[in-house]
């Protein structure tokens, strides 16, 4: 009986071990699709996220990398880093404009055509990559030299992936905008898919070229690994936004100035220095027009000069104009400014300029009001103030309490003031104050 029981237990254990081995082998053999999401404006944080993701996908042996796109465009240098990383990836890359209603505009169209396989969801669009410049007159088309460069660049990327290079070039030269059906007809994308599952089933068995070698994709029923954004890339994404960098720059500048004007607390200087360092770092993540920075500095100098030497608003007006113009021409990113972003940036500029002008006009009013006051120093400050008699006051003696101090007091006439009555200080002689009864 005991032998049969032991034999049964051993059989069960062997079966469990076999099941575990088969399950583990099945799990190990399951293909993994590494998913990266590009949402919102493309900044240095976005580039870091993509580069790190492609490296990690290669290390874990992912079958492919799926980049899900929904972006209005972004910083040129960051876009270049992303396309370069995709073109040199050792893992096949699939770009997918999703969800429905998403866009891959401006810089996003460069990323879309750079992948091994490009796809779009229904109701999505891509294109509109003509470079623009920005100034006091608003957004306008960039110079011909800039347009030719970016047109040639996206044409080269598309040709390297076997896509319609002529149409890709028209994204830049003619600002073409394509929906998913037209993009498929004109050879910009490879397929249209409702969702991730349909996309992965459709590309299963496709052959792509990676590093000079043909590779057949096995994506059907693959598991998805969604990359989480790192703290570093999130911070860089925030700092690389020109709006955030501009606000930090202004806060830093004002903090340093107010700290130097009223030394001793060290708080304004510390906050100003931190904000200035973050702003300068953020500005290093996108192209900056140094003339714009100079105009902003001149604006702040004019504001301070107004507060120190009031000119009845003339310097404040000049400073406000310099601040608005300087901020408008501060960034130089030809693939960054979609209309919605520009309107938000313009509102930010006008808000900061208005608040700054209002502050310094208020400071001007306070300075002028102070200057109109009669100068009083020392004991003269007490004249005209009202207090109570601490004792009876007559022509020879008495006391009052003012500002927490006991003073000798007397009347200038024969009047007698009783204790507790209100008196007005009318003169001072040494340590004795002359008072009269308050009417």
Explained architecture:
- The chain has 439 residues and is of the alpha/beta class.
- It folds into 3 domains: 28-233, 2-enoyl-CoA Hydratase, Chain A, domain 1 (Alpha-Beta Complex); 236-372, no CATH class; 378-437, Beta Barrel (OB fold (Dihydrolipoamide Acetyltransferase, E2P)).
- Helix content is 50%, strand content 19%.
- It is built from 14 helices and 18 strands.
- It has helices at 2-29, 44-60, 76-87, 107-113, 144-160, 165-173, 180-185, 196-203, 231-239, 242-261, 267-283, 290-308, 314-328, 339-372; strands spanning 32-39, 64-70, 93-97, 103-105, 117-120, 125-127, 132-135, 138-141, 177-179, 191-192, 207-210, 213-216, 223-226, 386-388, 399-402, 405-411, 422-429, 432-437.
- The strands form 5 sheets. It has a 6-stranded parallel beta sheet, with helices on both faces.
- Strand 1, helix 2 (44-60) and strand 2 (64-70) form a beta-alpha-beta unit.
- Helix 2 (44-60) packs parallel to helix 3 and helix 12 (290-308) runs parallel beside helix 14.
